[in-house]
Amino acid sequence: MARKIILDLDTGIDDALALAYALGSPDLELLAVTGTYGNVTVEQGVANTLSLLDLLARPDIPVYAGPGHASDRQGFEVLEISRFIHGGNGIGNVDVARSSRGVQAGSAVDFLIGAVASHGDDLVIVSTGPSTTVAQAMKQSEDFAHNARIVFMGGALTVPGNVTPWSEANVHQDPPASDYMLRQSRDISMVGLDVTLQTLLTTEHTATWRGLGTAAGRTYADMLDYYIDAYAVTAPYLGGCGLHDPLAVAAAEDDSIITWLPHAMKVDVEGPTRGRTIGDETQMGPSRRSRVAVGVDAERFVARLMERMATALA
Fold it and tell me: Where along the chain do its domains lie?
């Protein structure tokens, strides 16, 4: 039976990859997408998601809008580095037809709470943006905090951050929310820069998508070529672009692709190390399942990504 998932996306380019991966997997059933801010505003992010779902022939997937800014701020502005890496529209400045449908009525927070109540352990929430929506659901519902199974792309335990020397971009947007999520969750898996930067995509891969001869294949090839070019400027030593968000989806699909370190985590929320993800010395008991990705079978993952993408883009 396919595993039920919900994606919480700030739909930039790697979120678009995560979306296609989920739709292309025979082992996953995507119930809905909730939208957050980060790579783009929440409004732009949900618009991107709706457009991509239409492009991928899945207009049946509902999309919900979440909070538009961090829990300790009054507003949100996209970081300049995010504009550079993801483009002005979040999807590499590629022109994708705007969807005629809109977001679902009701909040993403209420939807997540209801979904966990309905599906329990059969559902995994994959969060690839700031933790604001998930943390708010936890604050609103103790049952959600105790019963939600969460895989989140964020943080860095053994490597530097990508916004500051300590802070990864998703955690950097709302450190108190990430801290609350990590401390309160009973079942959480952190997929951070430790492993995502070991998984790379190159223009040889995107040429395969372009060769499919489909609108979706061309669009995704254009988006990822933009992303790869941005990485050539910001991290030329990698030789490609990091596959951050789709790796989190892959971990929810089959966690054997990852080497895990069982470890309770927290986030520094003030001082010069604000946004640092680090072990939580106060919560080391057996009552919670908290683990951090520290290794990945990159070759197996990239091969699986290409299989999933071929299905989704066909």
Answer: 3-313
